[in-house]
Amino acid sequence: MDAILRGEPMIGFGRDPLNPYSPRPLEAVGAKSTRRLKDRVTESCPRVPGVYGMLDRKGELIYVGKSKSLRSRLLSYFAESNKKEKGGRIISAARAIQWETQPSEFASLLREMQLIRQFSPRWNVQGVPKRQRPVYLCLGRSPATFFLAPLPPEGCIAAEGPFFGVGRMKVAVDSLNNVFKLRDCGQKQVFRFAEQLQLFELDHRPGCLRVEVGTCLGPCAAACTHREYDVAVSAAESFMDGFNNEPLTTLRDQFDKAMKNRQYELAGRNHTMIESLEYVERKLTMLNSARRKYSFVYPVAGYDGCGIWYLIHSGEVADVIAAPRNEADRRSLRPTMKRWEKLMQTQLTRGHGPFAHTLPVVASWFRKNKSELKEKAVSPAKAS
Question: Which fold has domain 2-128?
Fold first, then answer.
């Protein structure tokens, strides 16, 4: 922060992998008081799309945000009505603000997500109430299980998100592991499958009661073969793909049975689990629908003339190029359009594209801006 007050340049946000132009300049202002910081923003911040970062007195990036009008968004943090809200708490801890303009609101959304993943600012991932904290639903580890993570780790069988509400997502994870009978114990637990050879016949005791009550296949107690467990994992992966509603069907049947038998406490627990899984199913349906439906070229104009053509493939941003400005530019892009057309003939495996993290942004953007699909989305052949 002292560097800003002395007029020294700040370390930027770093390379933007979805910017086909030269790096965009970073601007920053700092002040020792909130009032003076507001004045500095008013003096120099433009009314254009972009991303911004809040820095504390040590110069640490504590929050990243985006807006289609940077100046309006940043000044809203200083509003009297915002003092007790999240924005007010962020600005009270900030002593400097830096921003980077973007050519469009869509570009700002993509850049914001990339920066959050890159820096994990504490007010984006930790400094918010737990019920609002973003997490990813993951299927992985060995033997596979459902679990939550702030960001999907490498090597997951499947991962989707972000989901919001750690409490209800924990309920959902417990429900999913119970329905698919997957383990939920730690990696330190010793696992033994039924087909594993052993010198002496041993009766392996399970690590918990779930085997006894029938909610786990028991890979820790040789109660199932590796193949049997893999079948359950495949069914769980099918749920993540949006093709298997077994968890909700099972829980609803259990709820109806509990109500019929007047087991109201059990029915209440099932109702809580159903509500959590309904939220997960809605989100998975949206993401998987985008994965199946969204494959096209999406041209987006830039307020500063820096338009961008995005290749949306299987719901993810797969590539970007600078928008052509004349017929000569358009002709020069024909080889790229042919390459894009060839790429779109193959289905992109979930989570393995170059920018897999863009799927939630793409899905949400076109759900809210349906007219963009009709007016702008074209095939590579038509774009050229």
Answer: GIY-YIG endonuclease (3.40.1440)
